[in-house]
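Standup notes
- HV: blocked on the assembly model, inputs below
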Amino acid sequence: MTDDLKELFTFLSFPSVSTDSKHRQDVRNCAEWIIRKLSAMPLTTELHETPGHPIVIARNKYQADRKTVLIYGHYDVQPADPFELWSSPPFSPEIRDGRIWARGATDNKGQMLAHILGVGKTLEANGELPVNLIFLFEGEEEIGSPNLAPFLKAHRDELKCDIIAISDTGMVAPNTGTLGYGLRGITCAEVKIIGPVRDLHSGIFGGAIANPATAIARLVASLHDGEGKVAIEGFYDEVRPLEAWEREMWAKVPGLSDQDYLKVTGSPASFGELGYSSAERVFARPTAEVNGIGGGYQGEGSKTVIPSEAFVKFSFRLVPDQDPQIILQRLRVHLEKHCPPGVKLVIEDGHDGKPYACDPHSNFGKAAQRALKRTFPGEPMLIREGGSIPIVQAFREILGVDTLLLGLALSDAQIHSPNENFPIENFEAGIRLNQALLEELAK
Amino acid sequence: MTDDLKELFTFLSFPSVSTDSKHRQDVRNCAEWIIRKLSAMPLTTELHETPGHPIVIARNKYQADRKTVLIYGHYDVQPADPFELWSSPPFSPEIRDGRIWARGATDNKGQMLAHILGVGKTLEANGELPVNLIFLFEGEEEIGSPNLAPFLKAHRDELKCDIIAISDTGMVAPNTGTLGYGLRGITCAEVKIIGPVRDLHSGIFGGAIANPATAIARLVASLHDGEGKVAIEGFYDEVRPLEAWEREMWAKVPGLSDQDYLKVTGSPASFGELGYSSAERVFARPTAEVNGIGGGYQGEGSKTVIPSEAFVKFSFRLVPDQDPQIILQRLRVHLEKHCPPGVKLVIEDGHDGKPYACDPHSNFGKAAQRALKRTFPGEPMLIREGGSIPIVQAFREILGVDTLLLGLALSDAQIHSPNENFPIENFEAGIRLNQALLEELAK
């Protein structure tokens, strides 16, 4: 195993699950490991406490005649459950079939370490970098980066830069340079329906007392019309229509056909908003998704109860120019209007992030395309991303800077799922890409 | 503590949860305890193996000139979870406020032991009983008595009797004699919606892949119309209309107003089928209830996934003359018709039982009313029950005999819920009622 892979294995072995309070110390241990690594390169490092998990900063010596590049990554990961579906333990990385298997392998530790090692190799070879570099790594991306925007505001001057680069998005096919210029936003909410003070016998009370599980199902069902469109009033009001060149390019991108989506996911049949391809649905159309639903008896066999309450966890993926807070407000109005009788509705706001799009044909955009061409064969593909990196919008709003998305994630990376993985060749290409990128951005 | 209460405490300490395979030995231990108790009275006892849990039979010596009474009870209980909502552990009985608190206190161990002790006291006092007695106790009532009907068929001759008595139903108010002459039937089903082969990232795939949790919610929502009526085609076709005397009597029964139902359950508001009182909805109208629903992330915080599958556990309470198998068939047709696109539907049948009604003004019905009058003040109340005892219909079909329901359960007994309880005075009255009942039935 190469030294680079050994480093990645160590990084992946921290169960840095940011949403779960019992992993708090693991997240911190992971941050401290990164600090030690960066200090040794050597870069000047800072560990910043937040009300949540720490932010790690590293930089080389500033020179006024160089461009300043900020590279962002996150060292926290999604929860790994259900554990029993993993072929190997999520926090004990393994190599099989040329891939590294572990929670965080792609999202985002593998890609983040490629940034670090690319910079490290340039430093090793040249003794210095062609740009002023700021590394900014956070531990709260998977819970919506609640403390990063305040941090950016508090440190606006020290974080002044010309361009930002992130590898936390998709590569459209193996060995295919991919530049992302847009992201969906997100807004989350958890809804509880409260009924009787305890679970009730469905024979003794059934028919006379409202069933919270039935009520929550009716609420969820009210969110879409019969054709898969979101039925919240005003939901599409601010949605920017697709441009003709986007539809043309995406039709040419490999791996994005309806059949490709079915093959990658194993879903039994195609699905989605009428009039759009799968790629268009994912890159440029908003959604309302149920991430979790629950209520009543969950065990083996049957238990004939009316549950005392039920919950649903929603996330909405948003596109330019939808605003998460406005969508959340419209959701509230919708839920209050559609809540069935006989129960109590409780809505709890979750994290959110604005959608994002920039111009891939700017000077920095062209530099990124050159770096991609030096690393991968063929012309880079220009895409938007279905996922959300809320902080990209915060970078634009607070630091006033655009972000280049140089994705290394394959569509079967199984991020946020059991058996997450990252090809060794993507890891190694990522390291080379970061060396080329600093050179091209410096021009 | 009286010896009778001590016996009940021992009986309640067995976690005889029939639906949960890990309690298999506990169920058997409970059956063997009952055998020892009955043998000592003394009665002739038999423990019959079944493919599931054992059936216990006990009888006195047969005399051709006496009527034969079969008394039925069940020694299995519902699961006790969620355990954290119990004020005292469910299988460590406690007395507080004049009540016994434990899983099974009312349903059915308290009432079943009242039968046994009533018979025991008559034997102690008189050396014999005024009737031929058959005790029939099963350990599978809470999972739909799958092995009792085959047992009745196989032992039809040895179980020949004139009338059956059961205490496993409700008493309309404390210290109020209550004769039940009808029961709702039940049919259960578990429905799974299968989508992608694993949980998916809702950003990377959301919009292009059907969400099983959304789909199951839409299916559940399709089961009712906007006014609370079940929307399955043909669901009400065989429902017998209420008789005028029933509506008049139930309007007089204490504790059955809409406000009473809200008070007992803590539900936030009234609910139910238009044109019926709460009592009528529960006693004589069918329902479609969700007993459990689940899918996707169930933990703390958020996890932005599209779940790979979702489930719902249904039970339908049925009234004369609905047939569980016909209703299940109509449910299948409904679910297949309403299943949203992009997912796979799997339907698994659960247990079922036919609804039941008999004439409360028959000779045996009148004898039961006399026994109730000897035990409790005032005229006995004649009601139907919202719950299901499928075996009552099996008794009628296989043994050709009607069943008297002499309920001792109060509406706040919290059966099937945390903090199940049984008043000591109901336990003691139940013992006296069983002594009077044998005398009156013998006349």
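- HV (later): unblocked. The CA atoms of residues 20 and 354 of chain A lie 24 Å apart. Chain A has a mean pLDDT of 95.
- Next: hand off to the docking folks.
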